[in-house]
């Protein structure tokens, strides 16, 4: 008799404008990226089996959905209810934009107040960036202080980030 596990994982992508949220969301969902400002909320849904590229974990069939919420960067659109029932948060900042890193303090407070996410990954992005103004040490210290994971997207390609996110989802399913 096959046992199955029905899961629904909610992944929230947050960060300031032009930090790479929509691009990352498109990469994760496998959709075509269109450069335009996100207004409101962009939601993608994927089958967990397809995203994780496996159909069983610990002998149980995986079924369920991964919901990806790409939020707008403008603070006027950053509503706290986006955070409700979120298990995984990807918090982006640009290494070349000090304000985008400073805003992570506000996002960290919202996470703690609104969702109690199981996993938060602070992602430093350097796509299209000029000279970095945020150091790796600053980012790592901020992540450690807040109990977040850190991923340096400057030196790692998307496949490594994708694998990291998949591993986090697998941990979430196993817990």
From TrEMBL:
The keyword Amino-acid biosynthesis is assigned to this record: no
SUPFAM superfamilies: P-loop containing nucleoside triphosphate hydrolases
SMART domains named in the record: RAB
Domain of life of the source: Eukaryota
KW Nucleotide-binding (keyword) present: yes
Listed PROSITE patterns: RAB
Keyword list, A-Z: GTP-binding, Nucleotide-binding
MF-aspect GO terms: GTP binding; GTPase activity
Protein name, as recorded: Rab-like protein
Organism: Hexamita inflata
């Amino acid at each position: 008799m096959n046992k199955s596990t029905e899961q629904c994982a909610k992944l929230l992508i947050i960060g300031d404008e032009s930090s790479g949220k929509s691009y990352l969301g498109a990469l994760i969902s496998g959709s075509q990226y269109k450069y335009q400002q996100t207004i409101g909320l962009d939601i993608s849904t994927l089958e967990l089996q397809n995203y994780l590229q496996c159909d069983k974990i610990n002998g149980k069939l995986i079924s369920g959905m991964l919901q990806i919420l790409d939020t707008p960067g403008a603070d006027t659109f950053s509503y706290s209810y986006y955070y409700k029932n979120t298990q995984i948060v990807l918090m982006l900042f640009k290494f070349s934009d000090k304000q985008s890193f400073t805003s992570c303090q506000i996002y960290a407070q919202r996470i703690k107040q609104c969702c109690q996410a199981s996993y938060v990954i602070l992602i430093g992005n350097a796509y299209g960036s000029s000279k970095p103004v945020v150091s790796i040490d600053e980012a790592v210290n901020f992540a450690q202080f807040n109990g977040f994971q850190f991923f340096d997207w400057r030196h790692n390609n998307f496949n490594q980030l994708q694998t990291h996110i998949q591993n986090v989802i697998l941990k979430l399913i196993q817990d």
